[in-house]
C-alpha cells in the first residue's frame, strides 16, 4: 500500500493542483512562470540581442520568480548588483594579475567576503561565483564579454521579476486560511479538555503536550501572517488577499491560554485546599471554557454573550462567595486569563 501511494503521489499532487486552489496550484503556477521566463530570456538573449553563450539570462530568470512580487523586485536589484560587483572584480584581477590561479583565489575570497554584506541577501554568493566563472573561462580580460554577462543577468532577472509581478502574482491567502483553521481547532480542543479537567479537579501531563502543539501552530500562524503581508507589497492582486486579522486575533489568545493552563495545573496539584476552587466554582469555569472554545471554533462573536454572563458569575463568586469561602485564591488565578481570552475574542 505504501509503495503504491509513493508511486501515485505525483499524480495525486497534480490532480489536486488542478482541482483545488491551494498550495499545489500556486506551486504549479510558479513553476510554469519560471519555465516561461527562462525560455523568453534565452530567446531574447540569443535571437534578439545575439549574445554569445547567454547562460546567465535563463538562470537569473528562473531564480527571480519568487514566492512574492516584493521578493522578485528586491531580488532583481540584489542579483544585478552582485553580478555587477563580480564583473568588476574579475575585470580588475584579470588586468593586474597575470596568474589565473592567483587571480581566481583572490576573486573568490574577495567576492565571497563582499557578498556576505546583508544588502545582497541570498544573491551575495554570486559576487564570488561570477568572478570565478569569468576568470576561469578567460573572459576577464575582454570588456565586451564582461558587459555581456552583466547584460544577460539584468535581462533574465528583469524578465523573471516582470512575469512574476504581472501574470497571476502570488498570494498566500490559502496558507492564512489553513493556519487559522488549524489553530482555531486546536485552541478549542485544548479549552474543552481543560474544562473537563477543571470540573474533575485533576491535572494531567497531556495538557503540556497539547500546549506545545498550540505553540507550534502559533509559530506557523505568525509565519503565514508574515507571508501574507509581504505578498501584498507591489502586488496587482493585493486587495483580493484574505484579511489576516482573524488569524492574528487567534494568535493573541496564546499568552492568556498558557496562563490559564498554568493556573489550572497549579490549582489541581496544590496540596493546600484554599488554592483549589470548589465544585460549583469549577463547574462555572468549565462552562466558561467550553463557551470560549465554541466561539474559537465557530468564529461567531455573537456567541460571546454566554461567555460574558459566566464571567459575571465568576466575578460574583470572587466578591461574594458561597459556602466555598476558601476557593477564591484558585478561582482568581483562573479568572484573569479567562477574562483576557474573552476580551481578545471580542476584539475580532
Number of E-type strands: 0
Q: Domains counted in the coordinates: how many?
A: 2
Major β-sheet profile = none
Continuous helix count? 14
Task: List the secondary-structure elements in sequence, H or E.
Answer: HHHHHHHHHHHHHH
Task: Evaluate the radius of gyration.
Answer: 30 Å
Indicate the structural class: mainly alpha
Average residue pLDDT: 82
CATH architecture of the largest domain: Up-down Bundle
Highest CATH level, the class of the largest domain: Mainly Alpha
Overall 3D form: elongated
What share of the residues lie within helices?
over 70%
Domain Integral membrane bound transporter: 41-162
Keywords: Membrane, Transmembrane, Transmembrane helix
Pfam families: FUSC_2
Transmembrane segments: 28-49, 55-73, 85-114, 120-138, 150-171
Describe the structure.
With 348 residues, this protein is mainly α. The chain has two domains: 2-166, no CATH class; 173-346, Four Helix Bundle (Hemerythrin (Met), subunit A) (Up-down Bundle). 76% of the residues lie in helices and 0% in strands. The chain is built from 14 helices and no strands. The protein has helices at 2-19, 23-48, 56-63, 69-96, 100-115, 125-137, 143-166, 173-200, 206-232, 245-251, 254-269, 279-298, 304-319, 328-346. Helix 4 (69-96) packs across helix 6 (125-137) and helix 8 (173-200) packs parallel to helix 10 (245-251).
Amino acid at each position: 500500500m505504501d509503495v503504491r501511494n509513493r508511486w501515485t503521489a505525483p499524480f495525486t499532487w497534480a490532480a489536486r493542483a488542478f482541482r483545488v486552489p491551494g498550495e499545489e496550484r500556486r506551486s504549479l503556477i510558479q513553476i510554469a512562470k519560471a519555465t516561461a521566463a527562462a525560455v523568453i530570456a534565452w530567446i531574447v538573449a540569443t535571437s534578439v540581442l545575439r549574445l554569445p553563450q547567454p547562460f546567465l539570462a535563463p538562470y537569473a530568470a528562473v531564480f527571480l520568480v519568487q514566492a512574492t512580487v516584493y521578493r522578485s523586485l528586491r531580488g532583481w536589484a540584489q542579483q544585478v548588483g552582485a553580478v555587477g560587483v563580480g564583473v568588476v572584480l574579475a575585470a580588475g584581477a584579470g588586468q593586474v594579475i597575470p596568474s589565473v590561479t592567483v587571480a581566481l583565489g583572490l576573486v573568490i575570497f574577495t567576492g565571497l567576503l563582499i557578498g556576505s554584506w546583508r544588502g545582497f541577501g541570498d544573491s551575495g554568493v554570486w559576487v564570488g561565483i561570477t568572478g570565478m566563472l569569468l576568470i576561469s573561462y578567460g573572459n576577464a580580460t575582454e570588456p565586451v564579454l564582461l558587459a555581456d554577462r552583466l547584460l544577460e543577468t539584468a535581462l533574465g532577472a528583469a524578465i523573471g521579476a516582470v512575469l512574476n509581478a504581472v501574470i497571476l502574482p502570488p498570494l498566500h491567502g490559502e496558507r492564512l486560511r489553513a493556519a487559522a483553521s488549524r489553530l482555531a481547532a486546536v485552541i478549542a480542543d485544548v479549552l474543552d479538555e481543560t474544562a473537563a479537567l477543571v470540573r474533575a479537579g485533576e491535572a494531567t501531563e497531556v495538557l503540556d503536550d497539547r500546549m506545545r502543539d498550540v505553540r507550534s501552530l502559533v509559530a506557523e500562524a505568525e509565519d503565514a501572517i508574515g507571508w501574507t503581508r509581504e505578498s501584498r507589497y507591489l502586488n496587482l492582486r493585493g486587495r483580493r488577499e484574505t484579511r489576516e486579522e482573524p488569524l492574528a486575533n487567534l494568535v493573541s489568545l496564546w499568552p492568556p491560554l498558557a496562563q490559564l493552563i498554568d493556573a489550572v495545573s497549579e490549582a489541581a496539584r496544590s496540596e493546600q485546599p484554599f488554592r483549589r476552587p470548589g465544585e460549583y466554582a469549577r463547574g462555572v469555569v468549565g462552562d466558561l471554557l467550553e463557551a470560549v472554545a465554541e466561539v474559537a471554533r465557530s468564529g461567531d462573536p455573537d456567541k460571546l454573550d454566554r461567555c460574558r454572563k459566566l464571567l459575571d458569575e465568576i466575578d460574583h463568586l470572587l466578591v461574594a462567595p458561597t459556602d466555598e469561602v476558601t476557593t477564591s485564591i484558585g478561582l482568581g488565578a483562573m479568572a484573569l486569563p479567562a477574562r483576557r481570552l474573552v476580551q481578545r475574542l471580542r476584539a475580532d
